[in-house]
Specification:
Helix content: over 70%
Shape: globular
Largest sheet: none
């Protein structure tokens, strides 16, 4: 259409100037209309460019935060794995410190749950005073609480033990499949705090108890039984467990009330069953 008008304008320009002026006006008007019709398209194109190169959306920001968090966690786990591998100098007989492996194993056994349960029950039965029996009773309760909580967390996290432990024949019978958190570390921290608060009365004994807790925790790393994060979380967990034991401390009077309540409910159940049998 515009080309036709331009041709007509050229023909009119060769004749006179009046029609040429009208043709220029028509050409300028058509050009203005074309620019107006193309305006929204250009605006749409510019808005699309802004949406591409403009500020990020909320979904993009959240995905970026998740990516950074994932990278941070993976980096920390890699550092944990590297440090744990460097500390496992007694993992086997051929390790760099394999000569002291029997001694480290002895320290490991001192933090096992079985010796602690046997010693606590023996002290509870052979206690001479009510105060001693009360302390041993609460220590047994603390050991049961530690065993239960560690087992629950291990089943929930399901972190496998280091590969050096899986290849150890001794560990296949005495070490669990999951490593997080360290049961030895949590038990050492809980028992150490229990003894420091309830039993330790001299500075030498406090130093000995703290040294034992550190040695047990370190033995888990030297023998490559756990990772560093397993031991660290186990120590924090055991330290907090004593606060729970302190709050739920079972005294002689409370124990008697509990036993009387249980015996009363048991008697009620027996009476109810007897009445049902008679009817």
């Amino acid at each position: 259409m515009i080309n036709t008008r331009r041709n007509s304008c050229r023909g009119s320009i060769s004749g006179n100037s009046g029609p040429a002026t009208n043709c220029r006006y028509e050409v300028s008007t058509s050009a203005r209309r074309r620019s107006l019709s193309e305006g929204p398209a250009r605006r749409r194109g510019s808005s699309c460019a802004y949406s591409v190169f403009g500020p990020p959306s909320d979904d993009y920001a959240s995905s970026l935060k998740q990516t950074i968090f994932t990278i941070t966690i993976r980096f920390m786990l890699a550092v944990d794995l590297w440090i744990s591998k460097k500390l496992g100098v007694c993992a086997c007989e051929g390790s760099s410190w394999g000569g002291i492996r029997p001694l480290v194993r002895l320290v490991e056994i001192s933090g096992h749950g079985i010796p602690w349960f046997i010693g606590t029950l023996y002290s509870l039965l052979r206690g001479e005073t009510i105060a001693e029996k009360e302390i041993m009773l609460n220590l047994a309760f603390a050991l049961l609480l530690d065993l239960l909580l560690v087992r629950v967390v291990k089943r929930f996290v399901r972190r496998r033990v280091p590969p050096q432990t899986r290849s150890d024949i001794f560990s296949s019978f005495f070490v669990e499949r999951y490593s997080f958190p360290s049961g030895h570390a949590s038990r050492a921290a809980m028992c150490a705090r229990f003894i420091l608060v309830r039993l330790a009365d001299t500075t030498a004994m406090r130093v000995l108890v703290l040294g034992w807790a550190v040695a047990v925790s370190l033995s888990r790393l030297l023998l490559a039984r756990h990772y560093v994060t397993d031991v660290g979380f186990g120590l924090a967990m055991g330290y907090c467990q004593y606060s729970v034991v302190e709050r739920l401390w079972v005294t002689r009077d409370r124990l008697l009330d509990l036993l009387l309540t249980l015996l009363g409910r048991l008697a009620g159940i027996i009476t109810y069953i007897t009445e049902l049998c008679i009817r």
